[in-house]
Write a structure and sequence with these properties.
Length: 155
């Protein structure tokens, strides 16, 4: 079965959402990357979870972004800190936002999607988690700063 371009985009978007959820879960439950990756691949991608039908995600993008976020967390966190206001280092922000910045930072530093696509995708993830807040603008601003540092040639 050949997937359409729209189906591929939806699967990549789902993988990004799942990556943020997995990073959040790892931090909250102090679980290993291997345990969380297997749980998501076996029980979330295209499965029923908590009464919801979970969309199939791009397993390669999910696994790579998750691994890169964990393996390069220190450099991603430093890049995020440089994008944040001095009085708000990454350790002080919400753990969901922290997971979002780590996933996006992994893609900006080690992925192949254009920087503007990465920004737009994670702003959409922010909308999913914070539909009524100002986090969308905050995520956009921080990711724009991170992207300009990581990939100045894209701007």
């Amino acid at each position: 079965m050949t997937l359409s371009g729209n189906q591929k985009r939806k699967m990549k978007s789902a993988a990004r959402l799942y990556t943020v959820q997995a990073l959040y879960q790892m931090e909250q439950r102090e679980q290993t990357v291997d345990k969380v990756r297997l749980e998501f691949l076996d029980h979330r991608f295209g499965e029923q979870f908590d009464g919801y039908e979970m969309i199939e995600g791009d397993t390669d993008l999910f696994s790579k972004t998750l691994e890169d976020a964990v393996n390069h967390q220190a450099s991603i966190d430093q890049m995020t800190d440089r994008a944040l206001v001095a009085k708000w280092p990454i350790a002080r922000i919400d753990s969901t936002l922290r997971a979002m910045f780590r996933a996006a930072g992994a893609e900006l530093l080690h992925g192949d999607a254009p920087a503007k696509v990465v920004i737009a995708e994670y702003v959409a993830v922010a909308d999913a988690f914070y539909p009524e807040g100002k986090e969308r603008q905050f995520v956009n601003a921080v990711l724009d700063h991170m992207a300009r540092e990581a990939r100045p040639e894209d701007f």
